[in-house]
């Protein structure tokens, strides 16, 4: 289930399939579920992840060495979707691995194993639109990205093609760096809300409790990904899950 | 020149980029579509290439070599005589005109052999722009002389140490930079690849090569050539040389890819000619990529850094699929042999990239008749390859010189207290 509009801020976190290893992914996801994370992206590692910063790029390379792949992601998804029904799993991938698998077969398989949404950063709205009837039939939500430089008429088109939620890229650039949450950002959010009733998932630069509290009351979902992967990389999945629990508990439901 | 249908050439091409890059690509496309049919703009561009890069470049007959091989007459289109030493500067000068019109103050570029980076550094210096050039760490080692000059020209050269550390990774990194800087920065893509409108735009500026070949052939041979041969990395020099002849079916168009060491995975960069490349969507466009069953882009190898690339121009993928362009390949060994042959027989030092075109072209010329004509696009000069060539033909004398030079340079640095 995706959150309802204006619901209290939730965290969406992340797993790069194969990082640090396929076995560790299962434990890490269990840890996130215990920590209270209700949305988890399962990222198919890719050789050329152009929208990601160095944390996720390096995690992708490592994951590929550990056997990460589309197939490994679907296998893992099948297990974790069954094991953690309270968590909504979203497939995150660059287009080529999915394209090679066969888009229709992939969508069917993903929906069958319990994946509820899909984030594909290099898959533009024009190319997604022809697939919407199929995706709707399967109940697989394409979560499209809006960026600060997206023109209003395109925001309209993107929000119309999106299902479940809108992924709001908080700032220019790639994942893994800081973001400012000032008035400019709030105007940006307000503009997007004019076009859609879907909940907003804000990503890129959500790294601290302060970031989360800045987003609380303004967005429904905060994508807390690169920072979590850095914890996982540096401290291991268990400590990373503990840190995540602290972060989840510290969210002020009203915001600042 | 060939035109896309909404950015597609048959099934190839398109624009598969993160949303953040879309406005810049649309802006660029709008500007390009507005200018490309304007004869005054083309004249402005051609004049610039004359004044700054010495165009038109000559079409040189290889009389001695043609006789020695005993087949068709071989002609070289001398893109090596461009300022900066390769055809890359054509595209860069053209994009420079677009940058000025867009009013952007910074440019970024990816580079493999360094020729495109060098050309971009030259353009940036001339127009007073800031430039950042992304180059694979492996390529930096292979083409250090170009890195040296880019830095002297005032550009920031950033080594990319992810993956195989070659052109593919440099392109990824340039796209990441652009995602953050797109509002003030123009991405000078160096080849006829990437998201629309780049394949079409780069081919448009490079088409000056084929236009000249056509005029010069009629003047110097009295007819069109029977074949035009070019090496294919991303495909910009090939598209440039072929563009003018697409409507002349009697002219065979031949692209030579890097056969590397062997056709084993990771040992070559052959995407078109051996059925090795498969349709994929990455780096912003759809084309034939070297990739595995999971859609992960593969590693490539070539003795020539500029051909060491995993994808290929969507226009060439389409023309090859249509049978209009014949694709072949040359191995590293065939390339060093052709390199040496041209140098010793005709006194021209080719780039290793271009020597692929030579190897393929010589082979074809041999089986043709003396009244036939083959034009090979000599896309660049070989000075930049001095270290690679020295490695291909090891000599004690050179190694000893390098040791002395290293000692001198270390001493100088110590005296000046440099780092």
Oligomer: heterodimer
CATH class of chain A: Alpha Beta
Largest sheet of chain A: 9 strands, parallel
Largest interface in this structure: A-B, 42 and 34 residues
Please name the CATH architecture of the largest domain in chain B.
3-Layer(aba) Sandwich
**Element-by-element helix/strand order of chain B:** EEHHEHEHEHEHHEHEHEHEEEHEHHEHH
Mean pLDDT of chain B: 95
Strand order of the largest sheet of chain B: 3-4-14-9-10-13
Mean residue pLDDT of chain A = 96
CATH class of the largest domain in chain B: Alpha Beta
The parts of chain A where pLDDT drops under 50 for at least 5 residues are: none
**Rg estimate of chain B, integer Å:** 20 Å
Spatial strand sequence of the major β-sheet of chain A: 5-4-3-2-1-9-8-7-6
Proportion in β-strands of chain B: 15-25%
**Could you estimate the helical fraction of the residues of chain B in percent?**
40-55%
The rounded distance between the terminal residues' Cα atoms of chain A is: 27 Å
Can you give a write-up of this model?
The complex is a heterodimer of chains A (256) and B (419). With 256 residues, chain A is of the alpha/beta class. Chain A has a single domain (10-249), classed as Aldolase class I (TIM Barrel). Helix content of chain A is 47%, strand content 14%. Chain A has a nine-stranded parallel sheet with strand order 5-4-3-2-1-9-8-7-6. In chain A, helix 11 (226-235) packs across helix 12 (237-249). Chain A starts with 9 loop residues before the first strand and ends in a 7-residue tail after the last helix. Chain B has helices spanning 22-35, 39-53, 63-69, 88-102, 115-127, 137-142, 144-152, 167-181, 198-220, 236-242, 314-321, 332-346, 352-366, 386-392, 396-416; strands spanning 8-9, 12-13, 59-61, 73-78, 106-111, 130-136, 156-160, 185-187, 227-231, 252-260, 278-282, 285-289, 325-331, 373-378. In chain B, the strands form four sheets. A six-stranded mixed sheet of chain B has the order 3-4-14-9-10-13, sandwiched between helices. A four-stranded parallel sheet of chain B has the order 7-6-5-8, sandwiched between helices. Chain B has a two-stranded antiparallel sheet with strand order 1-2. In chain B, a hairpin with a 2-residue loop joins strand 1 (8-9) and strand 2 (12-13). In chain B, helix 12 packs across helix 13 (352-366). The longest helix of chain B has 23 residues, at 198-220. Chains A and B meet through helix 2, helix 4 and strand 6 of A and helix 8 and strand 11 of B.
């Amino acid at each position: 289930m995706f959150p309802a509009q204006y619901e209290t801020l939730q965290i969406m976190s992340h797993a790069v399939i194969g990082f640090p290893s396929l076995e560790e992914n299962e434990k890490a996801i269990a840890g996130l579920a215990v920590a209270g994370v209700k949305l988890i992206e399962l990222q198919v590692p890719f050789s050329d992840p152009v929208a990601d910063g160095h944390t996720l790029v390096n995690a992708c390379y490592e994951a590929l060495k550990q056997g990460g792949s589309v197939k490994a992601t679907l296998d893992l998804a099948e297990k974790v979707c069954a094991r953690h029904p309270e968590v909504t799993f979203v497939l995150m991938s660059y287009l080529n691995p999915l394209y090679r698998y066969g888009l229709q077969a992939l969508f069917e398989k993903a929906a069958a194993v319990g994946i509820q949404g899909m984030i594909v950063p290099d898959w533009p709205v024009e190319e997604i639109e022809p697939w919407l009837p199929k995706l709707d039939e399967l109940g697989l939500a394409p979560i499209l990205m809006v960026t600060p430089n997206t023109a209003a008429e395109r925001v309209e088109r993107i929000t119309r093609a999106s299902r479940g939620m809108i992924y709001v890229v908080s700032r220019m650039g790639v994942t893994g760096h800081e973001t400012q949450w000032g008035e400019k950002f709030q105007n940006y959010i307000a503009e997007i809300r004019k076009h859609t009733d879907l909940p907003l998932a804000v990503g890129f630069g959500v790294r601290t409790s302060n970031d989360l509290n800045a987003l609380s009351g303004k967005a429904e979902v905060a994508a807390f990904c690169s920072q979590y992967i850095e914890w996982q990389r540096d401290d291991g999945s268990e400590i990373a899950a503990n840190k995540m629990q602290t972060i989840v508990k510290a969210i002020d439901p009203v915001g600042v | 020149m060939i035109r896309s249908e909404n950015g597609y050439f048959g099934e190839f091409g398109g624009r598969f980029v993160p949303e953040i890059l879309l406005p810049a690509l649309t802006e660029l496309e709008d500007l390009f579509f507005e200018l490309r049919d304007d004869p005054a703009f083309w004249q402005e561009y051609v004049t610039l290439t004359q004044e700054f890069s010495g165009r038109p470049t000559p079409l040189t007959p290889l009389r001695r070599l043609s006789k020695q091989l005993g087949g068709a007459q071989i002609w070289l289109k001398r893109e090596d005589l461009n300022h900066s030493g390769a055809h890359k500067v054509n595209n860069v000068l053209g994009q420079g005109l677009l940058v000025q019109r867009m009013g952007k103050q910074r440019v970024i570029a990816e580079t493999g052999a360094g020729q495109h980076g060098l050309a971009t550094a030259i353009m940036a210096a001339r127009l007073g722009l800031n430039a950042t050039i992304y180059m694979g760490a492996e390529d930096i080692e292979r083409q250090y002389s170009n890195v040296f000059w880019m830095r002297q020209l005032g550009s920031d050269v950033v080594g990319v140490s992810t993956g195989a550390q070659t052109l593919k990774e440099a392109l990824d990194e340039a796209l990441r930079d652009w995602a953050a800087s797109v509002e003030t920065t123009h991405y000078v893509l160096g080849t006829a690849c990437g998201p629309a409108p780049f394949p079409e735009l780069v081919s448009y500026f490079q088409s000056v090569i084929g236009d000249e070949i056509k005029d010069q052939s009629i003047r110097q041979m009295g007819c069109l050539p029977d074949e035009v041969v070019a090496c294919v990395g991303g495909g910009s020099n090939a598209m440039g040389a072929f563009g003018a002849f697409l409507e002349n079916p009697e002219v065979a168009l031949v692209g030579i890819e890097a056969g590397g060491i062997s056709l084993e995975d990771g040992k070559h960069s052959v995407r078109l000619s051996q059925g090795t490349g498969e349709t994929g969507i990455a780096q912003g466009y759809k084309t034939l990529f070297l990739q595995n069953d999971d859609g992960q882009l593969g590693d490539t190898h070539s003795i020539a850094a500029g051909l060491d690339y995993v994808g290929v121009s969507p226009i060439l993928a389409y023309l090859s699929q249509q049978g209009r362009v014949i694709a072949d390949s040359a191995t590293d060994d065939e390339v060093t042999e052709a390199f040496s042959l041209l140098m010793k027989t005709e006194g021209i030092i080719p780039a290793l990239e271009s020597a692929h075109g030579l190897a393929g072209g010589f082979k074809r010329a041999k089986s043709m008749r003396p009244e036939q004509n083959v034009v090979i696009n000599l896309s660049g000069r070989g000075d930049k390859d001095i270290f690679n060539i020295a490695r291909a033909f090891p000599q004690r004398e050179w190694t000893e010189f390098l040791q002395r030079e290293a000692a001198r340079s270390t001493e100088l640095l110590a005296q000046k207290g440099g780092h």
